[in-house]
Structures are given as structure tokens and as C-alpha cells.
């Protein structure tokens, strides 16, 4: 089957590459010539483990091509996927659909026969019907159906998620479109991965509801972590005790500096705005957003407290600035809140991140970039673990402590144990939700 993929960002590129690995003939199209030129030379513009190898394999097999020519990509395609960005619209929190609608108009002019136009981008409920209206208005004789096929890819594990999904959601309203979508996902159906067929609106809502629920789990455990610090409880043990309940599950119950990335911030904001617009406020989602913002700011206070109330003139080493490990994505990362606050407080900030520098240099002006944690720690007065990259999980703590002028650690991902850190020579250690003993917490509360 020939598939056209409009957009070579994270979703479009991963989806196009994986569809070609299913055996389909895929043409990925983008209007940025430099991006297409790089892809044609085998350069992957994003960091996603394993993507470069799968892409190279399918290009070599002749199943995957890249072009700036939309007409060429769409010509003869049985399915045309729209996988362009839907960023949060400035000023009102809604998803910006201008790129989606522009793609719909352009592809309408390029259609040469029947095709299913599939929205892969995350879009508000009702968008697929608007896409259909735009296509009909642009090309009244177009022969097409629309389908909603939201993505559920985790950055850093996208290939596995695509090839071994928890489920594939497809919103369709004609047997013809359902047959095309069934053929596209046949390799997964044959391996018994669930294909969930719904109407258009339900498919669109599933994406928002799923992401809002996962964000809720994160904000919930971060709020519990703040309470644990006051009461002397250990949030890691609390999360374990909760997660062993099959009705709850252990995923997304890891206390930390708040969620970020391309999905949760954007999708929770859009869902909240949709609720407000339709007179059905999403109070839980609105609170999740507020708690996440508060959590990020609370991390600033943790570092300040660890440094005696001020970071002015101090050197701070920050390990990890991407929003999560195994990605180069900096969108809405906690680092974008914490690091500027430290610099604004007069600190000299050194940063280490295996893949964050490409985006981070523009987003975090004023920091110095180091190649490894030990160089960053040299002469520093505080070490902050902000992203749980694997290479930060087994550091030589004694070596770090010896290199630092004031060996203090803010472990904002709860990677290490307090006793181990202090035994290695650190003089102070702060984690998330794993603070003082109950007695110390009560003493502090009484003093306040």
C-alpha cells in the first residue's frame, strides 16, 4: 500500500518509518528543504533510540522516500496521514490547528483518486469533520474519507510502542475507510495487538483523556510527595504500596520535578480549554496543570534551601535538562523553569546532558556545557539531578564529593539513597518526598 505522510516531525517521521517497516511504500513530505535534504542523506533530525537503523533499512529496501513535493507524495496514495504540529495557541490555551488545515487544503489539490485522509496529529474533538469540510471546500470532486488515528508514542521508546502497542485507536465512519485502515495495521492485527474502531469524536477524545489521566497520576504523586516531606513519610514506599494495587498500577507514580514534553502540557491545556468552551469545566485537569506548575517552582525552593537560601555567586552543576531521558526534547522541560531561576538568582550554572545541548543552547542562554558530571562538579557548591539518564544512575559519589567545593546534592529524581550519598562525603542531600524523619519534620512544623 502507498502511504503519504505529511510532516516529518517526531510523530510523522517515526510513524512513516515504522509503516515502511511493515512493508508499505511510504513517502514522507515536508515543506522544509533542509530537513528533507538531511533525511535523504540518512541524518535523523531527532534523537530517538533505534530510529536511524530502521530508517536506513527501509530506505535501502526502497520502501521509504522523502520529498518536498506534496503532489508527488500524494499521487496514488491510498492513505494520506496528517502529522503536523498542533502547538498550544498563544493567549488562549487552545491547540493551534492552522498547520492541520493548511495540510488539508494542500492535499485536497493533490489527490488523484480515492484516499483515506488520516489525522495523526493530536487534535480537539470535531477536528476531523472540519478537515473533511476544508477538503470539500477546496476540491468539491475529491473522493475521500477521513479517519482519526491518534498516536500514543513515548519519546525514547517510540519504535517499541509503534511495533508493540497497547492498542491502536482508529476513528472511521465508512466500511471503505475501515478496510484501508485495517490493511495498514494488518501486521499488528495478525499478532493480536488490539485495534479499537470508534467514531471520529471518540477517537479524538481517547487521546486527550488518556494523556490527561497520566498527567493526573504524575501531579497526584508530586502533591503526595510534598505532604510526605512534611510528615516524614517516604514517597517511594508510598508509590510502591499504591502501585501494587492492580486497580492503580505502578506507572507514572514517580515523584519528581513535574511533567514536561510535547504532549502532557499541550494536551491538558487543550482539554481544559475545550471543557471551558463547552460549559463543562474539567476541574481535575485544571488542577493537574496548576499542581504541575507549582511542583516545578517548588524545585527552585529546594535548591535554594540546600544552598542556605541564596545561590548568588554559587556554582551549580545540573545533570540533565531534557524533559525525560532517551530524548533530545526540551519542550516544557522542568529545566526551563529551574535553570533560568538559578541564573536569575546569580548562580553560575554548568549543564551536562547526553543529547540536550542541540536545543538547550538556544533555550538556556548563560549556562556552560560540560562533557561529563565530574567536570561539571569541579568546584561546584551544589549538584542537581534533573533528568534520570542512565549514565547518572551509577555515579562515583565519592569522586563527585571530592571534586566539589561544597558537596551538596539535590536529587530531584530520587535516584540515590540519602545514607549512600552522605557516606560518600556529601554534606547535604535533598530528594523529592523523602525528606526528614517524622520527628525532624514535626520540629520544623512547630518552628514555623
What does this structure look like?
This protein is of the alpha/beta class and 448 residues long. It folds into 2 domains: 2-198, NAD(P)-binding Rossmann-like Domain (Rossmann fold); 212-447, Rossmann fold. The protein contains 19 helices and 14 strands. The chain has helices spanning 10-21, 33-40, 51-60, 70-74, 98-110, 127-138, 158-163, 175-184, 186-189, 200-231, 235-243, 264-277, 283-306, 335-344, 357-363, 373-377, 397-403, 418-423, 438-447, and strands at residues 2-6, 25-29, 64-67, 79-82, 115-119, 144-148, 168-171, 195-198, 315-319, 348-352, 368-369, 382-385, 408-411, 428-430. It has a 6-stranded parallel β-sheet with strand order 3-2-1-4-5-6, with helices on both faces. A 6-stranded parallel β-sheet has the order 11-10-9-12-13-14. Strand 1 (2-6), helix 1 and strand 2 (25-29) form a beta-alpha-beta unit. Helix 1 (10-21) packs across helix 3 (51-60) and helix 13 (283-306) runs parallel beside helix 14. The protein is elongated and about 70 Å long. Residues 437-448 have low confidence and may be disordered.
How many DSSP helices?
19
Uncertain residue segments: 437-448
CATH topology of the largest domain: Rossmann fold
Strand content: 5-15%
CATH architectural name of the largest domain: 3-Layer(aba) Sandwich
Largest β sheet strand count, sense and barrel closure: 6 strands, parallel
CATH class of the largest domain, named Alpha Beta
The coarse overall form would be elongated
Q: What is the rounded distance between the termini?
A: 68 Å
Helix-strand category: alpha/beta
Could you give me the name of the CATH homologous superfamily of the largest domain? Answer: NAD(P)-binding Rossmann-like Domain
Q: Kindly state the percentage of residues in helix.
A: 40-55%
Query: On the 0-100 scale, what is the average pLDDT?
Result: 94
Question: Going across the major beta sheet, what is the strand order?
Answer: 3-2-1-4-5-6
Tally of structural domains = 2
Number of DSSP E strands: 14
Please state the CA-atom Rg, rounded to the nearest Å.
Answer: 24 Å
Amino acid at each position: 500500500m502507498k502511504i503519504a505522510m505529511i510532516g516529518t516531525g517526531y510523530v510523522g517521521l517515526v510513524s512513516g518509518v515504522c509503516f515502511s517497516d511493515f512493508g508499505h511504500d511510504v513517502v514522507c513530505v515536508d515543506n522544509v528543504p533542509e530537513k528533507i535534504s538531511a533525511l535523504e542523506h540518512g541524518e535523523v533530525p531527532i534523537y530517538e533510540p533505534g530510529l536511524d537503523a530502521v530508517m536506513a533499512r527501509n530506505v535501502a529496501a526502497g520502501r521509504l522516500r522523502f520529498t518536498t513535493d506534496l503532489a508527488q507524495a500524494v499521487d496514488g496514495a491510498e492513505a494520506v496521514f496528517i502529522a503536523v504540529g498542533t502547538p498550544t495557541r498563544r493567549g488562549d490555551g487552545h491547540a493551534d490547528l492552522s498547520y492541520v488545515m493548511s495540510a488539508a487544503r494542500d492535499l485536497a489539490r493533490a489527490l488523484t483518486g480515492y484516499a483515506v485522509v488520516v489525522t495523526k496529529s493530536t487534535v480537539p474533538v470535531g477536528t476531523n469533520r472540519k478537515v473533511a469540510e476544508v477538503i470539500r471546500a477546496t476540491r468539491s470532486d475529491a473522493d475521500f474519507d477521513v479517519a482519526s488515528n491518534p498516536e500514543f508514542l513515548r519519546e525514547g521508546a517510540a519504535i517499541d510502542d509503534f511495533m508493540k502497542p497497547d492498542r491502536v485507536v482508529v476513528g472511521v465512519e465508512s466500511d471503505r475507510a475501515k478496510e484501508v485502515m485495517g490493511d495498514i495495521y494488518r501486521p499488528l492485527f495478525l499478532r493480536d495487538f488490539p485495534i479499537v474502531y470508534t467514531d471520529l469524536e471518540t477517537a479524538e477524545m481517547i487521546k486527550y483523556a488518556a494523556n490527561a489521566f497520566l498527567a493526573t497520576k504524575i501531579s497526584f504523586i508530586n502533591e503526595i510527595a510534598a505532604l510526605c516531606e512534611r510528615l516524614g513519610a517516604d514517597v517511594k514506599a508510598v508509590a510502591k504500596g499504591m502501585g501494587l494495587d492492580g486497580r492503580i498500577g505502578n506507572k507514572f507514580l514517580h515523584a519528581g520535578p513535574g511533567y514536561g514534553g510535547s504532549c502532557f502540557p499541550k494536551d491538558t491545556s487543550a482539554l481544559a480549554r475545550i471543557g471551558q468552551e463547552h460549559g463543562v469545566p474539567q476541574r481535575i485537569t485544571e488542577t493537574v496543570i496548576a499542581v504541575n506548575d507549582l511542583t516545578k517552582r517548588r524545585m527552585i525552593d529546594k535548591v535554594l534551601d540546600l544552598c542556605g537560601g541564596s545561590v548568588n555567586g554559587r556554582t551549580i552543576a545540573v545533570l540533565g535538562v531534557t524533559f525525560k531521558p532517551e530524548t533530545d526534547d526540551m519542550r516544557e522541560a522542568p529545566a526551563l523553569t529551574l535553570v533560568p531561576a538559578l541564573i536569575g538568582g546569580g548562580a553560575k550554572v554548568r549543564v551536562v546532558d547526553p543529547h540536550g545541548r542541540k536545543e538547550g543552547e538556544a533555550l538556556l542562554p548563560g549556562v556552560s556545557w560540560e562533557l561529563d558530571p565530574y567536570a561539571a562538579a569541579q568546584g561546584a557548591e551544589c549538584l542537581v539531578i534533573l533528568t534520570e539518564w542512565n549514565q547518572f544512575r551509577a555515579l562515583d559519589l565519592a569522586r563527585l564529593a571530592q571534586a566539589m567545593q561544597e558537596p551538596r546534592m539535590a536529587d530531584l529524581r530520587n535516584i540515590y539513597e540519602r545514607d549512600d550519598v552522605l557516606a560518600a562525603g556529601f554534606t547535604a542531600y535533598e530528594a523529592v518526598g523523602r525528606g526528614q524523619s517524622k520527628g525532624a519534620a514535626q520540629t520544623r512544623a512547630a518552628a514555623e
